[in-house]
Amino acid sequence: MQIPQFTPSAIDAGGCVSNAWDLLKRNYGMYLGIAVVAMLITSCVPCVNIFILGPMMGGVYLVALRDMRGEAVDFGMMFKGFEKFVPLMVIGLLQAIPGIIAQVLQFTLDLGRIGLQGGSVSDPSFFQAAGRDSAIAGGLVILAVVIGVLFSILAIVWWMVFFFAVPLAMEFDVGPVEAIKLSAQAAMSNIGGLIVLIIFEVLIVLAGVLMLCLGMFLLSIPLIYLVNAFAYRQVFPWFDRQVNTMPPPPTAYGSSFGNAA
């Protein structure tokens, strides 16, 4: 088995966004359909969604990476990730751990709030804490904020560690453990570019929200999928395994995309 090689400090976040936008415009209808279906399936199917997250995203990456090389693509290819269901499912499950923990914590807090309120808020003085109760409440709020910040940092680090795992398992014959290890190594070697990429993607999401939230489906989600695909290709350049012996430079996917000369 050939071990994929990554390029350190290869991510050009601006180039990723620019190339992703060009690719999106070229085949907007297909990518919009892929984004909407992927979001609906991975968000609206309770319990099952965490098992199919990895295979769905593997198919999305496959379409984008093939389109970059100028190969024929179609909407149905987004389901090809299910051909590698087990490794992609494992990666997806592990990648979703912070989200699962956040949902459990939120559910626990909601139950605790209901318990404290006794199922009723008819007494207007219930929320009027004083003295020691007020101090305890303030301390709990500060503690919750600190925990929230620490958890957010952990979630970002977790996102970076798994950033390349799904496309690696989809494109190469590697198992989930190997894909995650290699993804973590590549992420740590490109941490600066990934941080800038996060900032760009936050701005893309905000742009979608400003478009009456419809922009999230019409623009932000399909564009972010493609941005991530270009970032992956910059770090793990494509080369013809039958002809070339060296991968193209990372700049091949910075200001332009497709096959390197």
Helix content: 55-70%
**Secondary-structure class:** mainly alpha
Number of helices: 10
Overall pLDDT? 84
Main β-sheet description: none
- Total tally of structural domains: 1
Poorly predicted tracts of residues: 241-245
Q: What would the principal axes of the Cα set say about the shape?
A: globular
- The percent range for strand residues is under 5%
Give the CA-CA distance, first to last residue.
26 Å
Q: Order of SSEs, N→C?
A: HHHHHHHHHH
CA gyration radius, whole angstroms: 22 Å
Strands, total number = 0
Structure explained in plain terms:
- By secondary structure, the protein is mainly α.
- The chain has one domain.
- It is 67% helix and 0% strand.
- The longest helix is centred in the middle third of the chain and has 30 residues, at 132-161.
- It is globular, with a radius of gyration of 22 Å.
- Residues 241-245 have low confidence and may be disordered.
What are the salient characteristics of this protein?
261 residues; mainly alpha
